[in-house]
Amino acid sequence: MNWPKLPFKKPLSALLLATLGAVVEAAPVVQLAIEQHRFFPEVVTVPANTKVKLLIHNRDASAEEFESFELNREKVILGNTKTVIYIGPLAVGEYPFFGEFNPSTAQGVIRAVDTSSEVAP
Ligand SMILES: [Cu+2]
């Protein structure tokens, strides 16, 4: 095939490679549910030093707001909808979060753990 000699050929190739790279390094998905104004699970373990995709399913009819000062995240999740929040890469440690609309019950913590020392089977 004869490619046209256009000035943007190289930038396009670079963009394609970057896109492929992003697909290969897709963030692990961690699921979290909201039900009766509580988070399930309330302790969410994620790998440290890794970008993680939090998939949050609000099973309540009312909206909730996922909020965390430690994670610098804040997002409203309408009733009976799902949303995605990317977190990390996080240092090893605990990062509390809560539901701002129901803080007396909706409390949880992200626990980032070191998985680099795990022994392969
Ligand atoms: Cu808020």
Automatic annotation (TrEMBL):
Residues that span the membrane, as ranges: none
Swiss-Prot/TrEMBL keywords: Signal
Domain of life, source organism: Bacteria
Residues of the EfeO-type cupredoxin-like domain: 16-110
One Pfam family, short name: Cupredoxin_1
UniProt-listed SUPFAM superfamilies: Cupredoxins
Gene3D superfamilies, per the entry: Cupredoxins - blue copper proteins
Position of the signal peptide: 1-26
Protein name (database record): Cupredoxin domain-containing protein
Lineage, top ranks: Bacteria, Pseudomonadati, Pseudomonadota, Gammaproteobacteria, Cellvibrionales
